[in-house]
Amino acid sequence: MRRYDTLIIGGGLVGSAVAYGLARRGLKVALLDEGDIAFRASRGNFGLVWVQSKGLGVPEYQRWTRQSSMLWDDFAVELKNETGVECAHEHRGGLHICITEKDFAERKKAMQQLHLEAGETRFEYEMLDHAQLKKLMPEIGPEVAGASFTPYDGAANPLYLLRSLHAALLKRGGEYFPHSKVMALKAAANDFTVSAGGETFNAPKIVLAAGLGNRELGALVGLNVPVAPVRGQILVTERVKPILSMLTIWVRQMAEGGLLIGESREEAGFNDATTPDVQQFLAKRAITMFPFLRDVRIVRHWSALRVMAPDGLPIYEQSAQYPGAFVATCHSGVTLAAAHALRYAEFVDAGALPAEIARFSNKRFDVQNAA
Ligand SMILES: Cc1cc2nc3c(=O)[nH]c(=O)nc-3n(C[C@H](O)[C@H](O)[C@H](O)COP(=O)(O)OP(=O)(O)OC[C@H]3O[C@@H](n4cnc5c(N)ncnc54)[C@H](O)[C@@H]3O)c2cc1C
User: Fold this and answer.
1) Residue nearest atom 38 in ligand 1 by C-alpha distance
2) Measured from the CB, is residue 30 less than 6 Å from ligand 1?
3) In sequence order, what are the residues at sequence separation of 6 or more whose Cβ sits closer than 8 angstroms to the Cβ of residue 201?
4) Do residue 35 and residue 164 come from a single domain?
């Protein structure tokens, strides 16, 4: 039997960030991951550290996201120092482009509301009309109505992030077990035994960070985790010279020169195929925003499944039935990576989730609470 302080189930961005965070605090950690046949949102996402659209009607989510974006600055440097891997983190603010006047008007309302709800923490933003946006980003097309801007947004390369989290975990004495799907989980209060990859693991704490697998695993430790897949498709272009001066929510240029064009939101169950109609929609929208893209070739097209709670918020909880069993899941694993490593890991280490993240408890799904 292999014994640890904490077992983390799921080696995607959420599990790896929490695992690194715990190892960084001196805990003996094992990170168990199913492997390539699993659904892995962490390997198919857009890489934004995005704040401006988060938390309308839920200021706690806006604060949590913004906190993570702020922590990201030092976190990226820390990962680079620990591992030598550069996550291509940038934090220069971002634009949500509005193509029609109607989009622009709706966006303006939403941003005003976010500003109101932020209260003392404030929420700085600017609405830029076509002329103002054109000054900032001369590449925009004539049909674009405008954009919203906040200084909080940024981006990173999610694959480098994942690699650096794994490397940093190992450097801090953590252990990573690929091809280790959890097949059985025996739970008692502060005593968890797991069979995975032909081995047995035991620890007083366990963190479920298995993305879409959390629904099934949660049931084994008395945690309701009602996550479901939401498909997203992304296009990648050939590399071109640096052309996009700013980061936008649907088109961004990576450090290597290729442009990422995102991204759909589809109810397609567990079907993670790509489809030509969505490819066309994404390409058309991107060309309307940035007409120069008409002459740039698409070289890749992929799809991945988001890990989505019914209300789109993260789920953070500790089992009342089996104390020591935690769950962490969200649909913004890049954005929240710093918060997961530096804050959520601290809460797991302390053995209790604080009021700051109580809004993300799974109690919100209880029938009684909903009534
Ligand atoms: C198209 C798209 C675009 C996105 N864009 C962004 C973005 O711009 N910014 C952002 O912040 N987020 C974005 N996201 C969301 C982000 O990718 C996810 O929030 C994040 O990857 C979730 O990470 P995770 O670790 O929870 O899940 P996953 O990456 O799915 O990892 C779960 C892991 O658990 C393992 N697993 C499952 N079951 C078991 C088991 N029984 N035993 C052992 N291991 C198991 C799997 O092997 C897998 O590696 C996007 C997602 C998609 C699909």
Assistant:
1) 213
2) no
3) 1, 2, 3, 4, 7, 30, 32, 193, 194, 195
4) yes
